[in-house]
Known about the structure:
Elements: H1 15-28, H2 32-47, H3 54-75
Amino acid sequence: MATLEREKFATQVNSEILAAVRSLARSEGRQLQTLVDEALADLIEKRKGSRPRPHVMAVYQASHERYAPLYKKLAE
């Protein structure tokens, strides 16, 4: 999710979660705001219609086509 503008906002976060995210940012050599952006973008994507992403469904379909007889036997 590329954004040209950045906007400041204030909120409160569970102190253990914030400490873990800060530690993760430090260990990855990334900025805290980058991880927050990533987390918010991920949340938005997950909540969009609650549908699987197209590439996930493509892999599922390919698997089903290849292993359909096995899946049928396992279901029995």
